[in-house]
Design brief:
The chain is mainly alpha-helical. The protein is globular, with a radius of gyration of 24 Å. The relative contact order is 0.09.
Length: 314
């Protein structure tokens, strides 16, 4: 094991290739997260609603019995003890959504299986979404670049965790316009832990980044709501920016918000003018924040330095 670490440390190419392969494999799991986490959240919400409805019914039934002693009431709600098949990120086994064919190990090899199967299910020949190999490829490429950019060490490990979280959040936000707390909050805390030893920035800068990141978009949200009476973004966006501040420090927040706002405005205007996208139809902002965060991760210091130099010359 020591020899392997020494080899990876001394060979940037080998380290980048290894991280790229790891990124491909994790990208396959990210596809599971993208597909299942929103469904898990919906199931949890339904369970909570059922429990609240049951509690409300029991309270009304109790009140009725107090007013009319001896009256009979029928409990229309089940006891809630019925067994349900577990559904999480591990079980059940991945299967084709069209024919329920269980995906075997060789059918789950990142990118290669998609190419061998020609983008179709082995059992029913239904088309497999191109998103699956795309997510795997993006994960692999970004992880390989993170290893090359940061070199062997904790910075590369942190960068890959950052990439995986943003990749999952981007796809989920596109699908559901949600940024789950199950990802954003651990991302924030892990960022603070990494920066205890100053991996990306100082701990004080990370804490300030989390606070300022959240409060910045929170203030914009309420200002926009007071002016227009509408909600311009969700609370998940606040938490995502706070997480980015915890990873990269408060100094990177202006760059992240500027880049994401420009990209979001450009895409939004294009969709409205070219694609006739309705003005009242919301556009997820999380993917643009994620893009700004990735740019800040890899090139934030360089861009900020060049910008400050340009200001000093002018």
């Amino acid at each position: 094991m020591t020899e392997l670490f020494q080899m990876l440390q001394s060979s940037p190419i080998a380290f980048s290739v290894m991280c790229g392969v790891l990124g491909l494999m994790v990208g396959s799991f990210i596809n599971v997260v993208i597909h299942r986490l929103p469904k898990m959240m919906e199931m949890e919400w339904q369970q909570q609603c059922a429990e609240l409805s049951r509690s409300d019914f029991i309270m009304r039934q109790t009140d009725a019995e107090k007013c009319h002693p001896g009256s009979e009431h029928i409990n229309i709600y089940s006891s809630g003890t019925g067994a349900h098949a577990p559904y999480n990120l591990i079980v059940p086994r991945s299967a084709c959504p069209h024919c329920n064919h269980a995906i075997s190990a060789w059918e789950n090899i990142p990118i290669i299986s998609y190419l061998v199967l020609r983008g179709k299910c082995k059992s029913c020949s239904a088309a497999i979404s191109k998103r699956y190999p795309a997510v795997e490829a993006v994960s692999g490429v970004l992880c390989a670049y993170a290893a090359w950019h940061f070199g062997f060490g904790w910075s590369a490990v942190g960068a890959m965790l950052f990439v995986w979280a943003l990749l999952a959040l981007t796809a989920i936000d596109f699908d559901t316009q949600l940024l789950p707390d199950d990802i954003t909050m651990p991302l924030l805390w892990v960022g603070l832990v990494f920066n205890i030893s100053g991996v990306f920035t100082s701990l004080s800068s990370a804490v300030l980044g989390a606070v300022i990141g959240y409060l910045t978009l929170w203030s914009v949200y309420w200002l926009f709501k007071l002016i227009t009476g509408k909600e311009g973004m969700g609370y998940g966006d606040f938490k995502l920016v706070a997480a980015m501040g915890a990873w990269l420090g408060w100094q990177m927040l202006p760059l992240i918000i500027l880049l994401s706002s420009l990209a979001g405005a450009l895409v939004g205007i294009t969709m409205i003018v070219v694609l006739k996208h309705g003005r009242n139809i919301p556009i997820p902002f999380g993917p643009y924040l994620a893009g700004g965060g990735l740019i800040a991760l890899f090139w934030g210091q360089t861009l900020t330095h060049e910008y400050l130099q340009l200001l000093s010359v002018s």
